[in-house]
Amino acid sequence: MILATNNTTAMPWWFWVIITILAIIGIVLGIWSFLSGFKSSNKINTNNAIEVILATKKYSWKQTDELPETSGLYIMFIGKRYDDKEFFIPIFIDKAQSIKAEVLKIKEQIYSNNKNSIGAEVTTYLLQKGLTATDINFYIVNVSENEIDKTLNEYLDLTKANKRGFKSK
């Protein structure tokens, strides 16, 4: 009795072509996924100016009495971090002759919850997000008297606060 004498494991040539093509595709996908992991850390932040301001001295909800009586720009921001990817950004930027008086006026509007005021918008936002008044912070932008309007427009354009933030009434 003769057993199979030709016991070979040789594969046809087309099998090796398919294995080679799949291996090349796998290596290319692996390199692409490895390199794409580094792209997010190199992303240029377009709102660095806002983050710089939010890193400066902030006046919390309870510290509004400590605000200076100066004129200039002020920012009301709700939350911990500025996230440009959010559709609605909880920010309000405005100029005032007396920053302290304007902030206290906004604070009173939030307490009274008048329907046609920024206070109603802020109160609605706080209720929707489950936040409290202690999450509201105020910042002062140091700018010269001559540059107030120009800087206000720059910050409004930079943050898109007119379209995506609280609107002044």
Automatic annotation (TrEMBL):
Membrane-spanning ranges: 13-35
Keyword tags: Membrane, Transmembrane, Transmembrane helix
Protein's name in the database: Uncharacterized protein
Organism: Mesoplasma syrphidae
